[in-house]
Amino acid sequence: MSVQRSEAIRYRLNQLYYGKSRASARFRIGYIIVDLAIIAFFVAVPLLEKTPLFFVLDYAIAALLAADLGARSYASGDIRRLLRSPIFWVDLVVLLTLLLPQYLLNFGFLRVLRLWTLVHSDIFWRVVGHGRYDDTYVEDVTRAIVTLITFIFVVTGFVYTSFVSGESLDGYVDALYFTMSTLTTTGYGDITLPGTWGKLLSIATMLAGITLFLRLGQTVVRPRKIRFPCPTCGLQRHDVDAVHCKACGEQLNIPNDEE
Fold first, then answer.
1. H-only helix segments in the chain
2. 159 has pLDDT over 60
3. Exposed, middle or buried, 2 (CB in 10 Å: 0-12/13-18/19+)?
4. Total domain count, the chain
5. Residue 4: is it exposed, middle or buried by C-beta count within 10 angstroms (0-12/13-18/19+)?
6. Residue range of the domain that includes 202
7. 229 Cβ neighbours under 8 A, 6+ residues apart
8. pLDDT tens-digit series, residues 60-74
């Protein structure tokens, strides 16, 4: 492949992933639909893992995710920046569990992180409402809720994988019940995890639960802000009706939808 053709392909991919054209918007809509289908597969894994269809879907999704990672890497043109992105590493972990289901099926609960990567991706918010909710209160609240939900299912999966064979847990519902009662620090005590590692996991879950609930509460009740960089000091967030920057006093001209 010639250098010129290679650069043309890179430019085309960059426009599809990061551009603002109609073709780019349609591509990202398709991208989100595929992501939602992948998440649906991850949710259905407990029902499919013992059927022949599981491996067909698993490897098909692995190929799709590998192609997406490769295309994103090629389109970015800055591999170092990509490697600093937590979303990229989450996708790599998910891909690894897909490629080696015989050995890493017990870590399949990590695939729910795909939901986190979807809602925390710029592509998702640029497409939703044609960017109407990008960098808004709705985005902040949605991200906080999804982070909490993702944490719940990751911990539930870890508990189910590590402790379901013991006397304390009978199945996935018990693992979810334990996670929720521990996360909310209710602590009924009817289901507990055995051993030192069980106690340490319970402590970590309680601490993380308090943090996530506080973050969600703060995000919901705090005054609404809008992202608009101050031309003088660079402060990003301002009140919706702000006329001057509260950091440096610079006059602002924040656009709004009022007639």
1. 3-18, 22-48, 52-76, 79-83, 86-99, 101-104, 113-119, 122-127, 137-163, 172-183, 195-221
2. yes
3. exposed
4. 3
5. exposed
6. 136-222
7. 235, 236
8. 888 988 888 888 888
